[in-house]
Task: structure prediction
Amino acid sequence: MAHPGSTRLLDDWFRDGLRRNPGGPALRVFDRVLTYAEVDRSATAWAAAITSAVGRPTAVGVVASKTPEAYIGFLAALYAGAAVVPLHPENPVRRNRSVLLAAGCQAVIVDPAGAARTAELVTGTAVAAVLAPSGPVDVPAGVAAPAVDADAAFTPPDRSADDLAYVLFTSGSTGRPKGVPITHRNISTFLEVSLPRYDAGTDDRFGQVHETTFDLALCDLFPAWASGACVCVLSSLQALDPVRWVREYGLTVWHSTPSLVRALQLRDALRPGSLAGLRHTGFSGEPLSVDTARYWRRAASGGVIDNLYGPTEASVAVTAHRWDPDGDEVGDVPVGRANDGTSLLVVDGAGNAGAEVGGLLVRGPQVFAGYLDPADDAGRFATRDGVRWYRTGDRVRVRPDGALVHLGREDDQVKVNGYRVEPGEVEVALREVAGVDAVALAVPGGTGHVLVAYLLGGDEPDHLAVARALADRLPAYMLPRHLWWWPEPPLSAHGKVDRTGLLAEAGRRLAPAVHPDREGSRS
Amino acid sequence: MRSPTANTPLASGVVDQPWDETFEEVVRAALVEYPPDAPLEPGTPLPAHGVDSIAMVGLAMVLESSYGVTFPARALVPATFATAGALWDAVRTAN
Result:
């Protein structure tokens, strides 16, 4: 029988912490510390304000980055009975607007950075109310800017575990982002199976590294809140100096991508024992090498390390592996076995299930029902013996003990600092803004992939203008680090652009010792 | 340790920068392929010249030890490193 999964709502997990530790710290942003009761009161008041303006919304955008609005707004949208749609305020306005439109958001909650371009953002969308808890905001005619009444009485509407909890957007190879809708059942099942790994309590402090536009953030937020612990938000710069902030904030739980550690390792920034306060570390988002795990463990000497794996489509992570620092593994740390309730299937190139090496399929209560736009479902699902599986696109090897090892992708998708990037999406955007043929490539490097792009043929383009126009369309993590013009690119035997040749040349250009001339690069 | 309020004219004769030589040297050292003869101005965007987040953290550490100050947590955000002028303001106001 299929596993039914959790029937809890995502905000129920916050209420667990509220019950256990009402006067204790729930959220720290720099020197501002908010208690569980304060966060709950604000989220309730914000939900009331939105509901009084637009009724019960189906989707609420939260345009905020690492501010109280990003976290309290997330809860407020849930309290209002809506699906949360997190948006990064530094993303291009036109991209955020297309996300608001696709998700059908009727309201947005903005932090000061998000408020800066609100009028432009909501024009032409279904957004009828903008809530700016930190101050005044300019809204177009016909759009409400409700005031927050701190004492408003409000009870969240009745919801079902099969209602949407959030919608995240990931890079799509067709040139536009793909919406991934996740239900309360999907994400609550993940939390139910994951919480025991943390064994956290009201004295724990979780470092919060990932942006809330990235579902790995939920791995900090809700396990912390379910335990009555404090979520300590780290700016992108604080996250790169864990020694200082683990000490100053007294962090006990850390969760980041391996590439962050790799960057520290290349500078040898972690002295042995310098992260001794950490008792639990989770890595996810990209492969974790044994070498990097060892380096981190030397600093976080008293703690355990879990390696997690999963696509956004299956609610954060579907496997986990507790790394044994005394083991004799080489290469990459395994990603482990399936979470309770989740089924995995490894299928080889001939379609045989149960292969040792092959593509990974997943099903179970953590797996979403399909993309926001059904057109994006094409080729992403497989039906075997009448059962529907999600194709992760990841290649894995099954160890004799049953643990999986991640081998890479079956397609072009890459991870840049943990973010999923489809070079095809970058390529489409580049062709549009440059008006010439373009190729975007991910070049493997010391801390992960580096995105580069070539503009092919034609006259020499205005590099700065192209870079600027591209930044107007794509989030920062999708922007190529280098943009090169190549008037007569090499062609393959079939007369097509020789991508392999372009990739090899990019590798040469990125290796400074081999190719000191970086003319034409924009950085 | 230098006083962050010093305003020493630079040897090149360019005097309109609000900062001192230490700051000029530290910031220039963090830029990638920035022409030595091009002036560093308050509006010079650091990320456009190779200062990524790792470099920002390194810059913060060097500036803290050069000036004997500690940046408050809320200064450790990319906006502080957006331009040379914004960074100098952060150095001046740190203690």
About this structure: Chain A touches chain B at residues 30-31, 235-238, 240-241, 245, 248, 263, 267, 518, 523 (CB under 8 Å). The longest strand of chain A covers residues 387-398. The longest helix of chain A spans residues 36-54.
